[in-house]
Amino acid sequence: xxxxxxxxTAAIVAAGRHLLEERGMDALTMRDVADAVGVxxxxxxxxxxxxxxxxxLILEDVADELTAALDAAAGSGDPxxxxxxxxxxxxxxxxxxxxxxxxLMAPQAGPDATARSVRSSAxxxxxxxxxxxPADALPAARTIVAWTHGFISMELAGAFRLGGKRRAGLxxxxxxxxxxxxxxx
Length: 185
Hints:
Elements: H1 9-23, H2 30-37, H3 41-44, H4 51-73, H5 79-96, H6 98-104, H7 113-132, H8 137-157, H9 166-169
Helix pairs in contact: 1-2, 1-4, 4-5, 4-6, 4-7, 5-6, 5-7, 5-8, 7-8
């Protein structure tokens, strides 16, 4: 009779993700992950093929968590409020998970990249279509993501050195003026 499993793929991914945030990408080792889940390093390979596979599983976990958080943020029924809420959730996620967020946004093309992008973008595209119209939803969503990611990347890098309220610059407060707008000038 085989010995009972002493760990799970979910526990390995959680430990790897924690260590990744704590130590950074270059310092993540399979041995450290094995220690964190209480098994010997060779035992990890029963569930994870190697370091690259661990990174893939961590990225899937991160993408799923961010997708769920963005989906949950878009529930007010007002698309402009939903977009503001989604931007705020996206920013909080990036600051809570700076290493995995950076890794998530790095160029990579896994076997499921397109399907994952479609799933993770569905809510944003739906909400943006309500504001910009279906024909402009994809380019508008790309602009919002690029702008938000750029802003957050600069924040994470400490690139804003002139002072001021950064949250206001990200458009997280309503601006004066006519029409429905995401932020203020």
